[in-house]
Structure formats: structure tokens, C-alpha cells
Specification:
Strand 6 and strand 7 form a beta hairpin. By secondary structure, this protein is α+β, with helices and mostly antiparallel strands. A four-stranded mixed β-sheet has the order 5-4-6-7, sandwiched between helices. The protein is elongated. The chain has five helices and seven strands, in the order E-E-E-H-E-H-H-E-H-E-E-H. The protein is 38% helix and 22% strand.
């Protein structure tokens, strides 16, 4: 991580932390215990989704798919459930599952489409971020 101090016209300084590739920015890092707790919760949530057979259909070149990936914690947390419709075989599977647009979450023969909050995905699948 790189620390970046930004000074505004009123001479106020805000500190941001940026990854080397510039893909992630954080306003504050918080405590290590808090970060560990969040990471554990996200990992448990993604494991629950994967264990229940949830499939997240998306198109990685679309903003909506990227937004959904970020809401779920990033590519690391969706890798077990993500299926990109840029692959013809995946596109056919998505169509067979009734997916009409991406991003979509498919679970137990039903789907929710669009960018969804973690709580809505939790209600849909029975997985909870806190467990």
C-alpha cells in the first residue's frame, strides 16, 4: 500500500491508502482486528454461497458486474461462484437458468438480477455476512 496525503484548497489534509496498481483506495485502514473480522465474515459468506451452489453470472467488462464484485468484497471472494458470460458455454448455461441480464445470482432455480446488496443476497440465499 501507498500512503497518499491530499491537501485541499483550505489547507486540510486527507490521507488515503492506495494499492500499487491503483485499483483500491481506502480512506482509513482501521484496526487490524477489525480488518481481520471483516475478512473472516466475507470469507464465511462466500463459502456459504459456494456451498449452496449459488452462481453469480456476470460480464467482467461491465460496470454493474464490477460493482457487484466489489460489494461482495472483490474477486477473491467471488471466485468460487463467478461465471463470466463472455464464455459461450457459460452464456448458454445462464440462458438455460433463465438469466436475462447480468449481473445475476442464481440459486435453487430462482434468480435475482442487477446489483444487489449483501443483505438482499443473504435473504435470497439464506447466507449471512455475519455468520
Amino acid at each position: 500500500l501507498y500512503r497518499v496525503d491530499v491537501r485541499d484548497p483550505n489547507d486540510q489534509v486527507e490521507t488515503y491508502y492506495v494499492t500499487q496498481d491503483g485499483s483500491r483506495v481506502a480512506g482509513s485502514l482501521g484496526s487490524l482486528d477489525q480488518m481481520r473480522s471483516v475478512a473472516t465474515s466475507r470469507s464465511n459468506f462466500s463459502s456459504c454461497l459456494e456451498g449452496r451452489g449459488v452462481v453469480f453470472f456476470g460480464n467482467s467488462s461491465q460496470r454493474q458486474t464490477q460493482a457487484q464484485i466489489q460489494l461482495l468484497g472483490g474477486t477473491r471472494y467471488v471466485s468460487g461462484i463467478y461465471a463470466d458470460v463472455n464464455n459461450e458455454e457459460v452464456l448458454q448455461t445462464a440462458a438455460q437458468a433463465g438469466v436475462q441480464s447480468v449481473p445475476s445470482m442464481v440459486y435453487n432455480g430462482s434468480s435475482i438480477q442487477g446489483v444487489n446488496s449483501v443483505s438482499r443476497i443473504g435473504n435470497f440465499t439464506g447466507c449471512n455476512l455475519g455468520s
